[in-house]
Amino acid sequence: MKNDLNTIYPLLAKVGHKIIGDRNTQARTLWEHFYDEDIQIYEMNRLSSVQDIMSASSISDLVMLCEERKYSLDYDNKRVPIEGGFTKPHKTVEDFLRYRAVSNNLRTKKNKRATVQLVDFYQNRAKHNVRKRGTNADDCKRHFLRALVQRVHPFENSGTYVELAIKLKQFDVNVDQLKNARRTTFCTNVVFNSTSNRTLIRRMLKALGYQSSDNYQEWLDLLIHKGISNGVSMYN
Q: 194 and 176 share a domain?
């Protein structure tokens, strides 16, 4: 399908969305919302049911009801997204249910789009039973400290708790945080991949005296969730 600018729109299933206009207008509307960062809401008219009439104390119309609906244009995760926009089957039913649970949680509780990248990130954390507490920076610092005090390669022995707390004072790190980091098992690649997190990791490494010729890539490879570089697109 094409618009006036000869832009080709992929064939999008309306999946219950009742959109006004011809098929090109409908496709253009869905395609525009496909790239929205936030979940958009629209109003839809539907026929009232016997249950509506009997259960509601009062309804505006016995024939037609107006409801608010969310645009649902996120990937359904029936298959696992992989690099290059391709997919593969889930290994187990539990894997599928974990992907679906993460997707539903993002949409209903966090009110975020369940993008391929976000679902991949959070399901990886759920798989390792890692919960996110606080801001992205807090979470990044917490996993950095775990790798540091547990001396996970390429981290080395950088001193006592007191010495480390002094070096990392500018990041509000104290001895108690370092001791707690020792008690919790470290998991690789669970830090959200963002410019601010990568910058924070590099700053903390510099404060500890670490030097690197490749901009601390080894440490980033240990901590940052790599994710999917090219998620599922509507063209596949």
A: yes
> pLDDT for 89-110, tens place per residue?
999 999 999 999 999 999 888 8
Shared domain check, 66 and 90: no
pTM of the prediction?
0.72
148, 140 Cβ separation under 8 angstroms: no
Name 48's Cβ contacts closer than 8 Å, sequence gap at least 6.
59, 61, 62, 63, 64, 65
Instruction: Pick 232 or 225 by higher pLDDT.
Output: 225
Is residue 228 one of the residues assigned to a domain?
no
DSSP string, 182-229: HHSPP-SS-B---HHHHHHHHHHHHHTT---TTTTHHHHHHHB----S
Q: 173 and 216 in one domain?
A: yes
Q: Does some domain include residue 154?
A: yes
Note whether residue 214 is domain-resident: yes
* Domain span at 105: 80-127
Task: Kindly report, residue by residue over 105-124, the tens digit of the pLDDT.
Answer: 998 888 888 888 889 999 99
Q: How many Cα atoms sit within 13 Å of 39 on the Cβ side?
A: 20
